[in-house]
Write a structure and sequence with these properties.
With 135 residues, the protein is an all-beta fold. The protein has no helices and 11 strands.
């Protein structure tokens, strides 16, 4: 599973963290979480949410996936489940000399590779108020 976005730990379990109009919600796809106060998200059959305050969370962070190719760092732009390929982007102009990339917007370069050809790593960036909890 590719993780990208904001996450929080609540009850020793990791959930996606979403916000809407200054309210935070934990998001789950597990119907068993309804036993812990989650409710079905409007219009979604298999998505459940629970409103929470920041004080209730054990941790909160953003996960930014990346891959290294030929010594250059690429950010994950997207994943195509049908083809099994990931789109990776960098703004390092020197990459053109060693990697077969395509121009992507202004000052950016993109490459598509099979997910099984690379190793995705994650940066875990604390969300404000949780900075001291990570190593």
């Amino acid at each position: 599973m590719i993780r990208k976005g904001r996450f929080a730990v609540w009850g020793n379990k990791e959930f996606e963290l979403i916000s809407y109009q200054r309210q935070y919600y934990l998001q789950s796809e597990n119907p068993l979480d309804m036993e812990n106060g989650f409710v079905r998200k409007n219009g979604e059959k298999q998505v459940f949410i629970k409103p929470v305050s920041i004080r209730e969370l054990e941790d909160a962070y953003e996960i930014v996936p990346y891959a290294m190719i030929a010594g250059y760092r690429f950010s994950l732009e997207g994943y195509n489940e049908k083809t099994g390929k990931v789109a990776l982007v960098t703004n390092n102009s020197f990459v053109k000399e060693k990697v077969d990339v395509q121009a992507y917007g202004k000052f950016e370069y993109i490459i598509e590779v099979s997910l099984d050809e690379i190793r995705l790593e994650e940066d875990r960036i604390p969300i404000r108020g949780f900075e001291g909890l990570h190593t």
